[in-house]
Amino acid sequence: MKESGKRTQIIRTATDLFSRFGTKRVTVEEICRTAWVSKVTFYKYFTNKTDLIRNIRDELIETGFARFDEISAMDIPFPEKIALMTRWRIEFFARMKDEFIHELYTLDDVVEEAKRRYMKNIADAQEKGEIRSDLSPELIWLVTERLNGIVRDESWKTIFSDYGEFQEQMRTFFFFGLLARSDVKTKAGGET
Questions:
Q1: C-beta separation of 43 from 118 below 8 A
Q2: pLDDT given for residue 77 in this prediction
């Protein structure tokens, strides 16, 4: 295995172990043993486990943002974009242990970049007339962040056993509201 291949193997192995067991319970020794590399090789590429976690986190976040941007750029109606983003999010987080998800959610720089991209997506949808233009993107972000608190504190688990079902219902609630579609009217009195 080439040297860069060893680094890749360490990252893949650690990502798998962290996703299944969380970062606290996985040791450098376990990563090395499972990846079939020596500790010397590990420390050639990473200062310590925290440095490895940071590398993995950055790669996952960049992959997530790339997918978000890809979906945002699609020439499809906004509800379809939201459905694709929700489906991707469910699949992405389904592979990870809660502990690892919490570590991703607590990074201020990640939250700020997510906010920037999310608000741009909302503003673009407002310009196209796909969502209400009389709502502030900042308010939409604030509400989204508060709803994300339900994910972080895991209170959703008191109602749902399946994360995917929770996400689907949250998406429907947030973007389509409480009223039946035939009951929703615009201010002018027309159908929405």
A1: no
A2: 87
Q: What dihedral angle (degrees, nearest 10) is formed by the CA atoms of 161, 164, 165, 171?
A: 140
Helix axes 49-73, 108-127, angle to 10 degrees: 0
pLDDT of 168-182, one tens digit each? 888 888 887 776 655
Residue 46 in contact with residue 55, Cβ under 8 Å?
yes
In the numeric block, which tokens belong to residue 20?
A: 């299944």
CB atoms within 10 A of CB 2: 7
Beta bridge partner(s), residue 191: 185
Instruction: State if pTM tops 0.70.
Output: no
One-letter amino acid for residue 152 of the chain: R
Rg (CA), the chain: 20
Hey, which residues does 185 pair with through a beta bridge?
Answer: 191
How far is 66 from 165, CA to CA, in rounded Å?
Answer: 24
AA letter at 155: S
Averaged pLDDT, 68-80: 88
Question: How far is the C-alpha of 96 from the C-alpha of 156, rounded, in Å?
Answer: 17
87 alpha carbon, distance to own chain's centre: 11
